[in-house]
Design a protein that fits this description.
Length: about 325
C-alpha cells in the first residue's frame, strides 16, 4: 500500500505540473491584456508613475516580459515553491489571505449539503431497489431524474420565489442581514444560518438524484447475486439479508464516489454562491475571473486541479480499504 501511495503521489505531482502549465498558457493566451488595464488604471492616479513604467514593472513582477516557458517557471519559483501567490488585483490583498477568508463559507455549504445528500439519497435508493417497479420506485426515480435534469439556477429561483418573496422566511441573497452587527452572538449565528438554508437546499436537490440512482442500480445488482439468493434460501429474514449482506456490498462503489467528492467541499459552488451572493471561494473566484484577476485565477484553477487529484487518490484508497478483494501489487 505504501508503494502504491508513493507512486500515485509522484504521478499526481507530474500531472499537476502539466496542468499548471496548461492553465498558465491559457491565461497568457487571453486576447485582452489585463496587465495593460491595471497599468492604465494605476497611471491615472495622481502622483503615480507613467503608464509605461507601470506596464514594465507589472510585466516583470508577473514574468510576462518573456516567453511562456520562462514565465511559467518564474511563476513556479515565485508561487509554488514559496507559497506566495502574489496580491489579488481585484481585492487588493494577498491571494492566500483572501482564500483563507472565504474558503470556510464554501466548506460549510458543501459539508452540510453532502451530509444531507448521503442521508437522503442512500436510503431512498435502497427503498427503490427493494420495491422495484412499484409506485414508490417510480416516484423516487422521477424525483431523482428531476434533480439530475434541471439546473441549479432553476431550483434557486423557485426557492427564492417561494420562501423569500412569497413567504418571507429567508433573505434571498447575502450572508448576513442589515442588522447583523446589532444582534447578540446567538442571534448572529441564527442570522447566518438562515441565509444558508436556501443555498444548502439548492445544492442538496441538484445532487441527490445521481447518488440515488446509483445506489438503486447497485442495490438491484447485489440483490440479484447468488449469495443473496443463498442467504434467503437459508431462511434469513429479509431485513438481515438487506442490512447485513446486500447493503455492505452496495456501499463499496458508493464509498469511492463519496471519497472523490470530499475535496470538492473546498472547491466551492460557483453557480449557487453567485445566485445567492454567498461570499465563498466560488463566488470570489468568479468575480476575480471576470475582473481579470490573473494571480487569484491562477491560484484557484491550480487549487481545483490539486483537489481533483486528491479526490482520485482518496477514492482509490477507500476502494482498496472497503473491498477486501482488491489487492495492490
Amino acid at each position: 500500500m505504501w508503494k502504491f501511495l508513493v507512486r500515485r503521489i509522484l504521478l499526481s505531482i507530474v500531472i499537476l505540473f502539466f496542468v499548471s502549465f496548461i492553465v498558465y498558457f491559457i491565461m497568457r493566451a487571453l486576447p485582452t491584456s489585463y496587465v495593460e488595464a491595471i497599468a492604465r488604471e494605476r497611471a491615472s492616479l495622481p502622483g503615480g508613475r507613467s503608464y509605461t513604467e507601470w506596464l514594465q514593472q507589472l510585466n516583470q513582477v508577473y514574468h510576462l516580459d518573456g516567453n511562456v516557458i520562462e514565465g511559467f517557471f518564474g511563476w513556479l519559483k515565485d508561487s509554488i515553491f514559496t507559497g506566495d501567490f502574489g496580491e489579488s488585483w481585484a481585492y487588493n490583498v494577498p491571494v492566500v489571505q483572501k482564500f483563507k477568508d472565504v474558503i470556510w463559507d464554501s466548506f460549510i455549504l458543501g459539508f452540510i449539503s453532502l451530509v444531507l445528500q448521503l442521508v437522503i439519497s442512500i436510503p431512498l435508493g435502497i427503498i427503490a431497489a427493494r420495491k422495484q417497479y412499484s409506485r414508490l420506485d417510480y416516484s423516487i426515480s422521477v424525483f431523482a431524474l428531476i434533480g439530475i435534469s434541471l439546473p441549479s439556477f432553476f431550483f434557486a429561483t423557485l426557492l427564492k420565489l417561494g420562501f423569500s418573496y412569497k413567504l418571507g422566511w429567508f433573505e434571498p441573497i447575502g450572508k448576513v442581514s442589515r442588522f447583523y452587527d446589532q444582534l447578540t452572538p446567538i442571534g448572529q449565528f441564527f442570522d447566518v444560518a438562515s441565509h444558508y438554508v436556501l443555498p444548502i437546499m439548492t445544492l442538496t436537490i441538484v445532487s441527490i438524484g445521481f447518488l440515488m440512482r446509483y445506489t438503486r442500480t447497485n442495490m438491484l445488482e447485489v440483490l440479484n447475486s447468488d449469495y443473496i439468493r443463498t442467504a434467503r434460501a437459508k431462511g434469513l429474514s429479509e431485513n438481515k439479508v438487506i442490512n447485513k449482506h446486500a447493503f455492505r456490498n452496495t456501499l463499496i462503489p458508493i464509498v469511492t464516489i463519496v471519497g472523490g467528492t470530499l475535496p470538492g467541499l473546498f472547491a466551492g459552488a460557483m453557480i449557487t454562491e453567485q445566485l445567492f451572493s454567498i461570499p465563498g471561494i466560488g463566488y470570489t473566484a468568479y468575480n476575480a475571473m471576470i475582473k481579470g484577476d490573473i494571480p487569484f485565477s491562477m491560484f484557484y484553477l491550480v487549487f481545483l486541479a490539486t483537489l481533483t487529484l486528491i479526490g482520485t487518490l482518496i477514492a482509490d484508497i477507500l476502494y482498496a480499504v472497503v473491498d477486501p478483494r482488491v489487492r495492490v501489487n
